[in-house]
Amino acid sequence: MHMNARSFREILQRTGALVFTLKDAARVLGKPPAYARLFLSRLARRGEILRVERGKYCLPDADELEVASNLVYPSYVSFLSALAFHRLTTQIPIQVQVACARQKKPIDFGGVRMEFIKLKKAALFGFRRFGNAFVAEPEKAVVDGLYLPERLPISEAFYALKQEEMDIGKLCEHAERLGSQTVKRRLGFLLEKAGIRWNVRLKIGKATRYVLLNPFLGKEGRKNKKWMIVENEALE
């Protein structure tokens, strides 16, 4: 029995597989890969599916976050892109930032640049499914940003953690689970700077050297002895 294009798309939508591979298509069709390849080629020519990259396709109504967070497994939208999704930033991202466990080159798709940022596998937690997209919880997006501040401005992390939507206990728990002393020191400093009280203990070992609050600015600034942070960026 031959499946038509409409039935094929309906099955993908029903199963939430808005991004799919040749192998996925062959399984849905119940046909060998050669047949599936020809079937997908015809659908792509008619604009009924879109080719994202070699061997990967999506339905035309898939949005950029759904596509970006379903190209690598496991992965999730994080950093500034996640804060924008949760409406916790003053900036408009110019690309979709995806945290994943392996190296992957950026993709330009549908006028949007999708950037894949490698984290250790143990760091891939703290995200949830929103529709068919996988997005970091606000607290994890901030923690990821304090781990890789080149991906999220320190000022935006500070802005986000001051908002009422932020769960400070969860923020500290995520930082503790990530296990980076630098992240915990930056977080403790920012919480104190914002005048926020927290009841989850940040286990911070004895530091032997200062770290920069923002590693992309100069090294000059007030030295905060409690957190062993060089305050090299003014925050409001």
Written description of the protein model:
- The chain starts with a helix and ends in a 5-residue tail after the last strand.
- It has 236 residues and is an alpha+beta fold.
- The strands form four sheets. Strands 4-5-7-6 form a four-stranded mixed beta sheet.
- The protein is 36% helix and 19% strand.
- It has two domains: 5-58, Arc Repressor Mutant, subunit A; 64-231, no CATH class.
- The longest helix is centred in the N-terminal third of the chain and has 13 residues, at 33-45.
- β6 and β7 (112-118) form a beta hairpin.
- The mean pLDDT is 93.
- 35% of the residues are buried.
- The chain is built from nine helices and twelve strands.
Topology:
Blueprint: H1 5-15, E1 19-21, H2 22-29, H3 33-45, E2 50-53, E3 56-58, H4 64-68, E4 75-77, H5 79-85, E5 95-100, E6 107-109, E7 112-118, E8 127-130, E9 133-136, H6 138-147, H7 154-161, H8 168-178, H9 181-193, E10 211-212, E11 222-224, E12 229-231
Parallel strand pairs: 5-7, 10-12
Antiparallel strand pairs: 1-3, 2-3, 4-5, 6-7, 8-9, 11-12
Helix pairs in contact: 2-3, 5-6, 6-7, 6-8
Give the tags:
12 strands, 19% strand, alpha+beta, Arc Repressor Mutant, subunit A, 9 helices, 236 residues, elongated, 4-stranded mixed sheet, 3-stranded antiparallel sheet
> How many helical stretches?
9
Tell me the strand order in the biggest sheet.
4-5-7-6
Number of domains: 2
β-strand number: 12
What portion of residues is helical?
A: 25-40%
Low-pLDDT stretches are: none
- Principal-axis shape equals elongated
- Structural class from helices and strands? alpha+beta
Major pleated sheet: 4 strands, mixed
- Average pLDDT over all residues: 93
What string gives the helices and strands in order?
A: HEHHEEHEHEEEEEHHHHEEE
| Spatial extent as radius of gyration | 21 Å
**Terminus-to-terminus distance:** 65 Å
The share of residues in extended strands comes to 15-25%
